[in-house]
Each structure stands twice: as C-alpha cells, then as structure tokens.
Specification:
The chain is α+β, with helices and mostly antiparallel strands. The chain is 29% helix and 33% strand. The chain is built from four helices and eight strands; from the N terminus they run βααβββαβαβββ. β7 and β8 form a beta hairpin. α1 crosses α2. The longest helix has 15 residues.
Length: 161
C-alpha cells in the first residue's frame, strides 16, 4: 500500500470511499454524497488530499487537510479520514494520519485539530490518543446521527513540533 497525493484518476475511487462514510451517517458531518463533479471540486479545494492505494492502484482510503480557521488562527489545520469498510483493520487509518501530520507541518501548520470526533468512534479515538493527540473535552449532543439521535463529540488536537 502507498500513501501519496491524489491524482485525477483516483477521484471516482475517492468519492466511493468518502460517500460510504457520509452514507453511514455516524462520523462525517456531511449529509449529501459527492458526485464526480462536486467531488473533483471538493478534493481540489483542500490544502492537501492524500490517498492510500493498494498494490493494484485501487483507492482504499484518503484524507483531506485544510485550515481550521483564518487569520490569527490560520496556523491550525483540520483533517478528515476515510477508509473503505472492506479494508479496515489493516492500519490504513494510522498511515493516513501519520502522512497527514507530515503534510500539515510541510504546509506550515502548527496544530492539527479535530473538531467533531464522534464519541462512539472508539477506533479513531484510540488511534488519535496513541499518536499523542489530546482530547479537549466533550460536547454533549454535538453530532446528529443518521437516525436523528444525537451523540457527543470529542475535539482533539496535536501540536506539530
């Protein structure tokens, strides 16, 4: 498996992985799936978009990296990660986060912050904590699940030394 900057021919595979997470309705805030055109525009608008591709070149995961805010808070970035459900358990998420940390630093960011990690997303939370992220607290009922119920969210951050 290789982690690299996305290429034009990756877009449809990236959209499939992204939309799988959106459709599950339990991790990403987005509610509308990406189309080829909206996906192409969305991924190009990021500071950096990385993909995980298997030996055959198939997209099995991705991440987006972008500023979390502007101006005096513009040194803080944000990221989202998606791994195909068929490929989970292979440490692809960890490789994506590690690559993202390197890219964030390379792009001049000083802090990586996750605004809305759903409390029940224990695999992501354990990964972030193992990689040295600090949980900032809990926001009660901060995420509306697909079924209309609410879940707590846990913001995390890590300084990029």
């Amino acid at each position: 498996m290789t982690i690299r900057k996305y290429e034009e021919n990756d877009i449809d595979g990236m959209i499939a992985v992204w939309n799988e997470i959106v459709d599950a309705g339990d991790a990403f805030p987005q509610e509308e799936p990406l189309t080829h055109d909206t996906g192409k525009e969305f991924f190009a608008a990021q500071t950096y978009t990385g993909v995980a591709v298997d030996e055959g070149g198939k997209v099995v995961g991705l991440y987006i990296l972008h500023p979390n805010n502007v101006g005096r808070c513009g040194h803080i970035c944000n990221a989202s990660y998606a791994v195909s459900s068929k490929c989970r358990g292979r440490h692809i998420g960890e490789k994506l986060v590690l690559d993202c940390l390197a890219q964030a630093k390379k792009h001049g960011f000083g802090v990586l912050q996750f605004n809305a990690v759903v409390e029940g997303n224990i695999h992501a939370r354990h990964l972030y904590e193992r990689l040295g992220f600090t949980q900032l607290g809990t926001i009660p009922r901060g995420f509306r699940m697909k079924d209309g119920s609410f879940a707590n969210i846990c913001p995390y951050y890590k300084e990029l030394a």
